Amino acid sequence: ELVILRGNGQGERKSFERVYDYDVYNDLGDPDRSADLKRPVLGGKDHRFPRRCRTGRGRTKTDSSSEKRSSSVYVPRDESFSEVKQLTFSAKAVYSVLHAVVPSLETAIIDADLGFPYFTAIDSLFNEGVNLPPLKNQNTQFLRTLLPRLLKALSDSEENVLRFETPETMDRDKFFWFRDAEFGRQTLAGLNPYSIQLITEWPLKSKLDPKIYGPPESAITTEMIQREIGGLMSVKEAIKQKKLFILDYHDLLLPFVSKVREIKGTTLYGSRTVFFLTPDETLRPLAIELTRPPIDGKPQWKEVRMPCWDATGIWLWRLAKAHVLAHDSGYHQLVSHWLRTHCAAEPYIIATNRQLSVVHPIYRLLHPHFRYTMEINALAREALINGGGIIESSFSPGKYSMELSSAAYDLQWQFNLEALPADLINRGMAVEDPTAPHGLKLTIEDYPFANDGLVLWDSIKEWVSDYVNHYYPNPRLVESDQELQAWWTEIRTVGHGDKKDEPWWPVLKTPKDLIEIITTIAWVTSGHHAAVNFGQYSYTGYFPNRPTIARTNMPTEEPSEESWANFLRKPEGVLLECFPTQIQATRMMAVMDILSNHSSDEEYLGDTVESAWVENPHIKGAFERFKGRLMKLEGIIDERNANKNLLNRNGAGIVPYELLKPFSPPGVTGKGVPYSISI
Asked: Where do Basic residues bias regions lie (predicted)?
């Protein structure tokens, strides 16, 4: 049995096999199709890539004439989608969008570099839609049934029309994306609530090598911030009272700027955005700093834009904001989403199957949290993050997207910080307080993601505690459980082997240690993933709110007389040129719609009980209590969304924060927390 699960290191993977191994994840791209698509094999600090971002390949099979590769990413048989999930949604829907609808879009929109001429042209995507040519080799009626939200037939025509649903954000407030208040609100209650952090040191300063990247001092000065908040307090006092926050993509992005700018149709800066916490608990943007390192013999260039009241300054602020939003979109997709959930979970899945028996209680506890993840990751490796794929062609880092994800893994990823409370404390968004709910005092009290997330975290932890304490009543049983110890050792030293010597790995000696480890894994696959996935269409469907790419430099960066005159004459056109092209935007909108969707057989946290849990009265009772806590959380979230004092989740045109609401009907609902990363 173990040989079947672990493999013997020989031969080609077959679709019916059950081998769980790490070596099938090697290079990105498809060098067989084009050498330009080859990406380096992933490594750790000695290379530029961490293992967990690998794109899977089948083993090679050599005969006397040639070497052949398998046509798709190998997935162990037991990890494949169920027949029901295949028929109702999952692979077929995603595959159809990626392999039928997207190519048709690319045919319909002939000029790949064509942007939107007016904002009304963007609006037409939700009204008239895009006429698609015939979908090659596809059962059109089947596709319309499968993708009813996307493919809509005109009543008097046989044409296929890709007409997008109006996202809830835009439906409630057409100009929501324009407001600075919404820009700040979405850092706490939007699609990427994992980046905002407290400013604890002033002045701001880069940690990068100044010999390579230029002067490390930020161009955001005390005087600038003081001018914005002068009537309230000094900068020193604002730091002391924990009133200044930052989106900091400066040091992560700056090393990529030079090479990204060599790619046609995209650009990049390092960026910092500073916010001020107002008395009503909302975040007010104060300043955006964009930095270009020394490049082509030119010195470092940096600029600070601030909200202002003259026409030129207002448009420059909007353009700076577009760049920051593209940075945040890229970080969300490549780090908060792909790296920290999809990728990081794979070692847990593989080690669980290699080291724990299927009757081991921890295997049975974790099993629902791993369902379909390797299958959905394989699909992503084939068509989303592959060389020349949708991510590389739609996000600012281009072909360096996975390298950026890898750099973030090297610089930022720590298992102990994947626990929600530890993550909040690490970003300065909370401090330990035994007297406060959940043992934490939030720095921003109206932080919807953290407020709801901590209730969910505690619910999961209580369920895991009941389960673990039942099977390990004696603390010594954990340390003497050879399967369990082998499992944790493999996760640390093989699955995340690039970081095997890091001092922050938790030890596994007691039930308390095991509870914290299991709760962290369960949180990552459920709450964390739900928070960054199921709101994608709501917040990116109208792409000016979160453009995935900024295609042009700021008009103030070494402008020619002609380009500056063009900006002054028609600034709206310059902003539209900066936004994604028509094909980039519509392609991502189609993909985000399907990736935000719950299937009809979705298995929600606490809703579906495993048969092994029912057999044990103690575990069954613990599960029923867990389910009751999750149902109570539904009511708590409804009450919070109705509270007029919570301005980050209630107000005119504001979309209620429901991403961590445990249960949901099928479809694009912006709520629902499945057990596992299955989309």
From this structure: 48-59
270-277 and 244-248 beta bridge pairing: antiparallel
- In the numeric block, the tokens 């072909």 are attached to 399
DSSP string across 605-629: TTTSPPHHHHTSHHHHHHHHHHHHH
Give the contacts of 34 (CB within 8 A, at least 6 positions apart): 388
| Rounded Cα–Cα distance for residues 512 and 515 (Å) | 5
What's the per-residue H, E or C state across 342-356? HHHHHHHHHHHHHHC
Which residue from 461, 456, 476 is spatially nearest to 516, judged by alpha carbons?
461
Phi–psi pair at 62, nearest 5 degrees: -110, 130
Q: What Rg, from alpha-carbon coordinates, does the chain have?
A: 25
3-state SS class at 125: helix
Cα end-to-end distance, the chain, whole Å: 30
Banded model confidence at residue 85, pLDDT cuts 50, 70, 90: low
Place of tokens 């961590």: 660
Nearest to 596 by CA among 88, 59, 94: 94
Instruction: Assign 99 a pLDDT band (cuts: 50, 70, 90).
Output: low
Query: What is the tens place of the pLDDT at every residue in 225-278?
Result: 999 998 789 999 999 999 999 999 999 999 999 999 999 999 999 999 999 999
Cis omega (within 30 of 0) on the bond before 203? yes
Take residue 556 and report the two structure tokens written for it.
């103030």
- pLDDT (0 to 100) of residue 60: 39
Alpha helices in 37-111 (DSSP H): 83-88, 90-96, 102-108
d(CA 142, CA 147): 9
Rounded to whole angstroms, the Cα distance separating 23 from 389 reads 22
The set of catalytic residues is 337, 342, 529, 533, 679
Helices (H) and strands (E) in the chain, counts: 31, 14
* pLDDT tens per residue, range 481-492: 999 999 999 999
Name which of 86-100, 334-348, 561-575 the model is least confident about: 86-100
CA distance 528 to 103: 32
Predicted TM-score (pTM) of this structure: 0.92
* Alpha-helix runs per DSSP H in 481-570: 482-490, 511-523, 529-533, 536-540, 561-569
DSSP string, 535-554: THHHHHSSGGGS-S---S--
41 contact partners, CB below 8 Å, separation of at least 6: 26, 27, 47, 49, 54
User: Alpha helices, DSSP H only, in 176-289?
Assistant: 180-189, 210-213, 222-229, 235-240, 250-253, 257-260
The pLDDT tens digits of the residues spanning 444-498 come to 999 999 999 999 999 999 999 999 999 999 999 999 999 999 999 999 988 888 8
Q: What residues are paired with 298 via a beta bridge? A: 295
Among the listed residues 668, 25, 9, the one whose alpha carbon sits nearest the alpha carbon of residue 346:
25
